[in-house]
Amino acid sequence: MLKLYFFPMACSLASRIALMEAGIEAQYHLAHIWTKKVADDGSDFRGISPKGAVPVLVLENGERLTESAAVLQYIADVKPETGLAPGFGDPDRYRLQEWLSFIGTEIHKAFLFPTFWYKDDGSLAKPRARITQTLAVPSAHLEDREFLVGKSFTVADAHLTWALLLLRPAGVDIAQWPALSAYLGRMQARPAVREAIATEMALRKTVAASPA
């Protein structure tokens, strides 16, 4: 069975969404990204991943896979019949990688990461200045599309859904991009997405109310 190390509402939420959309049973282990402790036994999370970051997907052979783009594509390929990633040889497979890269670098690392990790205005000025231009890209793309890639839900949608959810607590109201707001509404209406979010929101409250 696959094992996912996660932190509630962190980028690992996209991996949980993908697992649930694919109907893949997995074990979930909470790892505190601030203290680097595994909730199950208090062990050092850096013993699982020297990066100290989620997601970490432990494969059935015991190998560990990190980085959202790689983890999401792996999950999709476990059950190719679900269509969570275009098949090998399909040009859209490269479009999927294009969007996973864009979300991971331009939204996550360029804006969400510094917003939640850094507190001084000097460090946040440049990310804040760029985010409007950044979000204009997926907004324009989704003006006449239901999904990011092709005509069905893929792991790229799981990734963008997570990123859009984090924008509001990061101080960005996506209502100014109607296409993104409508897209997020469609994604949240999906049963697996809704359940994954509800699960992590509940866990987030538990983590906040208890010592790490």
Automatic annotation (TrEMBL):
Organism field: Bradyrhizobium cosmicum
Protein name (Swiss-Prot/TrEMBL): Glutathione S-transferase-like protein
InterPro entries referenced in this protein's UniProt entry, alphabetically: Glutathione-S-Trfase_C-like, Glutathione-S-Trfase_C_sf, Glutathione_S-Trfase, Glutathione_S-Trfase_N, GST_C, Thioredoxin-like_sf
GST N-terminal domain segment(s): 1-83
Domain GST C-terminal: 89-212
